[in-house]
Amino acid sequence: MKKRINVGVVGLGYWGPNLVRNLRSIPDCRVKTVCDLNEERLRHIRSLYPEVEGETDFQRMVNNPEIDAVVIATSVRFHYPMAKASLTAGKHTLIEKPMATSTAECEELIEIAQRKGLVLMVGHTFLYSAAVRKIKEIVDNRDIGDLRYISARRLNLGLFQKDINVAWDLAPHDISIILYVMQELPFSVNCRGGAHITRGVEDVTSMSLHFSKERSAIIHSSWHDPRKIREMTIVGSRRMIVYDDISAQEKIKIYDVRVERPPHYDSFAEFHYAYHYGDTYSPHIKQDEPLKTECGHYIECIRDGAVPLTSGTAGLEVVRILEASSESLKLNGGPIDLWPQPNNGYSASPFPGQSMSPLMARSGQTVAPFPVAASRGNGNGTHAPFAKNGGNGTSAPFAKNGNGKAAGRNGHAAKVTAAGR
Ligand SMILES: NC(=O)c1ccc[n+]([C@@H]2O[C@H](COP(=O)([O-])OP(=O)(O)OC[C@H]3O[C@@H](n4cnc5c(N)ncnc54)[C@H](O)[C@@H]3O)[C@@H](O)[C@H]2O)c1
Predict the structure, then answer these.
(1) Most-buried pick from 62, 106, 231, 296 (CB within 10 A)?
(2) Higher pLDDT, 3 or 235
(3) What is the pLDDT of residue 374?
(4) Whose CA is nearest to atom 34 of ligand 1?
(5) Mean per-residue pLDDT for 102-108?
(6) What confidence category does residue 342 fall into, taking pLDDT thresholds of 50, 70 and 90?
(7) How would residue 23 be classed by pLDDT, with cut points 50, 70 and 90?
(8) What are phi and psi of 202, to 5 degrees?
């Protein structure tokens, strides 16, 4: 029998308990220790899982020789110091999104992981969802024609954060999905926003990413909206996809609609756009919990020594875009250059000495095989929605904050199915 991977999880606020619950369901994995400065949170988790050890000192947890891997689910400002301590102690490390507060921090973590031969993974949870993988399959099969643009809305009332703005909190999910579907890095970003509640912390932002061939993406993030909306529209030259992550039954709808310009016309009177309205189709999506797939993938990568789908480099790409969005906010929406277009042929990394993320890499890297089958709605792996008449289809960095209490919005009960913020 294979030795189980012993995992330590730090941060038992809102998200950490979901990670603990899912890691415990992976046969090869044992949650050995959970860590939080807040003893009440520790007591709560230990009341659910009495066999798990509780720890308040993160450094002591990573120094434990019995721990093989660490999962970090604390506030963003702790991600870098904790991940550095974990990797330095020789532990595989999974960091929640966003990976860190700057590209410099991400680059250092990637370098340490590479030098020590450790798995470094980032919790871009939505890339492990069957719906997103289905969208990728549809786009890759060119069922929607040429991909033109993507618009994303992630809105809610709260949860207000004090140390990061809403783009850093919510947009990592949309950015990671957009890069995954586009298979390209943007050459520039613009971002505008407003801070209505906490001075200097934007609670609503509108970000646009610009890609080659006139392709673009718009991301609207808000903590200041009456409704919870998690929606993405993927517009192609032939069809369009609407992805509604809140919908229980029809997360993805494919609209057979398009508009075309007349190929040639002699007079203005002859000029008519041609609108096509066809069927709407909703493929079956398997209802797996993305976080469980993510946790299983982490353990598999540790076992196989493979690069995760959401590697440190993928985390860095997202943080680079967030960093640029913050620069753009200061310029009231002015454009910030990112990766120059020639690099968007994906042959080389824009970061010296680093390979592109597995999402972008075309060759040369062993990317962990991913259970693609989980995303196949029609069971045979091919997707042709309109082929048939579809329809059913205590060390200093980890010290407590000023008032001696752990920063956190605690008291949230672990959800049965974790929904990413
Ligand atoms: N992948 C997703 O879909 C998703 C969803 C929600 C949150 N997240 C991410 O998870 C992370 C945590 O978010 P949250 O909402 O759970 O935060 P939270 O504030 O609710 O919880 C953080 C916990 O970390 C603990 N903590 C802080 N410093 C500590 C230290 N030095 N040692 C030990 N414990 C410490 C706090 O006491 C608190 O219990 C964030 O990075 C967030 O972006 C990811």
Answers:
(1) 106
(2) 235
(3) 30
(4) 36
(5) 98
(6) low
(7) very high
(8) -60, 130
Neighbouring C-beta atoms of residue 325, cutoff 10 Å: 28
- CA of 41 relative to ligand 1 center, distance in Å: 12
Show the ligand 1 pocket: residues with CB < 6 angstroms: 10-16, 35-38, 41, 58, 73-76, 78, 96-97, 123, 125, 398, 406-410, 420-421
323 CA → ligand 1 middle, Å: 20
Residue of 22, 36, 132 to mutate, ligand 1, most atoms within 8 A of C-beta: 36
* Domain boundaries, position 139: 128-289
Q: Which residues of 208-236 are buried (b: 16+ CB within 10 A; e: fewer)?
A: bbbbeeebebbbbbbbbbeeebbbbbbbb
**Reported confidence tier of residue 357, pLDDT bands at 50, 70, 90:** low
- 70 contacts: CB under 8 Å, gap ≥ 6: 7, 8, 9, 10, 61, 62, 82, 86, 91, 92, 93, 94
Q: Are 312 and 97 in contact (CB under 8 A)?
A: no
Atom of ligand 1 nearest to the CA of 79: 41
Tell whether 346 is covered by a domain.
no
> What is the CA(83)–ligand 1 centre distance, in A?
14
Which residues are CB-contacts of 172 (< 8 A; sequence separation ≥ 6)?
97, 98, 124, 318, 322
Residue 39: predicted pLDDT: 96
CA of residue 23 to ligand 1 center, whole Å: 16
Q: In the prediction, which pLDDT does 341 show?
A: 76
Nearest alpha carbon, ligand 1 atom 2? 420
pLDDT (tens digit per residue) in 69-78: 999 999 999 9
Mean pLDDT, the chain, integer: 85
Q: Whose CA is nearest to atom 3 of ligand 1?
A: 420
- pLDDT above 90 covers a percentage of the chain that reads 74
Number of domains within the chain: 1
CA of residue 298 to ligand 1 center, whole Å: 19
Instruction: Report the range of poorest mean pLDDT among 8-12, 128-132, 256-260, 406-410.
Output: 406-410
Nearest alpha carbon, ligand 1 atom 4: 420
| Residue ID of nearest Cα to ligand 1 atom 30 | 398
Whether residue 186 is contained in a domain is answered as: yes
Assigned domain for 240 exists: yes
Contact, 241 vs 145, CB < 8 A? no
Residue 362 lies in a domain: no
Domain with 154 in it: what CATH number?
Answer: 3.30.360.10
